[in-house]
């Protein structure tokens, strides 16, 4: 069982789009800074396509790349052949740090981890662009909005954004009620 807090961090457009053609669909330096601040010192779990889209290792963070490709190796990163193994490795790495695992996407990996997550740290992007990668639906019966903040718009930011944090209503590991 995962001990660390599992946080999904994503920038999501009004129509659920998170990316197109294996890249982001907007330019948002303010959000990239927030991503850096939220993730520094914490293990990042990401799909192989997201890793290749970023194109490099992010400093100050251990990266765990999920891929089915047996031969896939990246110097300086960890590679896991399934999501479960990746999360377990991230959990071990998180133990010696801030006890939080960051799931950094993309669509396939968010979809397979949202049921395991404790927190969703979402940047709402005020656009509805065409795209081929989507964030899974955030079910209000499961997720409670606990914080919303509109940062000042950076001069190089294309759309307006809001930072929205969600917590799971029924925390993982809590006893069933009414028993
Ligand atoms: N807006 C945001 O916050 C944000 C964040 C991250 C990414 N993105 C965007 O999302 C898009 C990429 O998302 P995506 O869904 O196409 O790709 P992805 O989730 O990044 O990676 C998919 C790959 O992960 C591996 N994988 C997935 N499930 C697996 C499993 N159960 N076991 C083993 N390997 C598994 C496979 O790699 P192999 O094919 O190598 O086997 C698969 O092709 C890009 O457009 C990117 O820019 C946006």
Provide structural commentary:
With 179 residues, the chain is α/β, with parallel strands linked by helices. The protein has a single domain (5-168), classed as Dihydrofolate Reductase, subunit A (3-Layer(aba) Sandwich). Helix content is 21%, strand content 28%. The protein is built from four helices and ten strands; from the N terminus they run ββαβαββαβαββββ. The strands form two sheets. The protein has an eight-stranded mixed beta sheet with strand order 5-4-3-6-1-7-10-9. It binds NADP nicotinamide-adenine-dinucleotide phosphate (NAP). The site of NADP nicotinamide-adenine-dinucleotide phosphate has 28 residues, from strand 1, strand 2, strand 3, helix 2 and helix 4.
């Amino acid at each position: 069982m995962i001990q660390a807090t599992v946080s999904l961090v994503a920038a999501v457009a009004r129509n659920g789009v998170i990316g197109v053609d294996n890249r982001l669909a907007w330019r948002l330096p303010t959000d990239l800074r927030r991503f850096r601040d939220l993730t520094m010192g914490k293990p990042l779990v990401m799909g192989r396509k997201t890793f290749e889209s970023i194109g490099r290792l992010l400093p100050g963070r251990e990266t765990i790349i999920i891929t089915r490709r047996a031969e896939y190796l990246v110097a300086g990163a960890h590679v896991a052949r399934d999501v479960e193994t990746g999360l377990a490795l991230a959990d071990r790495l998180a133990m010696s740090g801030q006890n939080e695992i960051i799931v950094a996407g993309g669509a396939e990996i968010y979809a397979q981890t949202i049921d395991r997550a404790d927190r969703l740290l979402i940047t709402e992007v005020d656009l509805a662009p065409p795209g081929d990668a989507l964030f899974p639906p955030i079910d209000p019966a499961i997720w409670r909005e606990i914080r919303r903040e509109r940062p000042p718009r950076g001069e190089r930011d294309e759309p307006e954004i809001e930072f929205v944090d969600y917590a799971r209503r029924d925390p993982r590991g809590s006893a069933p009620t009414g028993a």
